[in-house]
Amino acid sequence: MYPKTNTLPIDVKVRCFPAETSALMKSLQVCLPLLLALCLSLEACGQPSFTANDVVPPLPKAFDYGSNMGYFPPNYGDKALATLARDYGATSIRPGLFHHFLEAWGYDSRKEHFQYYDTIGLRNVVAILGFPSEIARDPAFYCPNQQSELFDKLYEPIWDDGENGTPVNDANPYALYVWKTAKMYKGLIKTYEVWNEPDLDTGNGWLQPGQPGNWWENAPKPCETKLKAPPFFYIRTLRISYEVIKSVDRDALVAVGGLGWPSYLDVICRYTDEPFEGKEEPNRYPLKGGAYFDCMSFHAYPHFDNSLRVWDASTGEYRNVRHSDAAVEGVWTQKNKFQAVLAKHGYNNTTYPEKHWICSEFNIPRRSFGEYIGSEAAQVNFLIKTLVTAQMQDMAQMHVYSIADEKPTNQAENEFAYMGLFKNLDRVPAGKAQPNAIAWAMKTTAELLKNTEFDATRSEALNLPSNVRGAAFRNKDGQFTYVLWAVTKQDRDESAEAEYAFPPAFTLKYMDAKPWHHSQSGAHYLMNAKQLILTGSPIFLTETFVANDYPKSPKIVPNPTLNGRAVFEFWMFEEARASVEIFNANGRLVAKLLDNERLIIGPQALPLELSHLPNGTYYARLITPENSLTVGFVKI
Question: Which domains does the chain have, with CATH numbers?
Answer without folding.
Answer: 550-636 (2.60.40.1930)
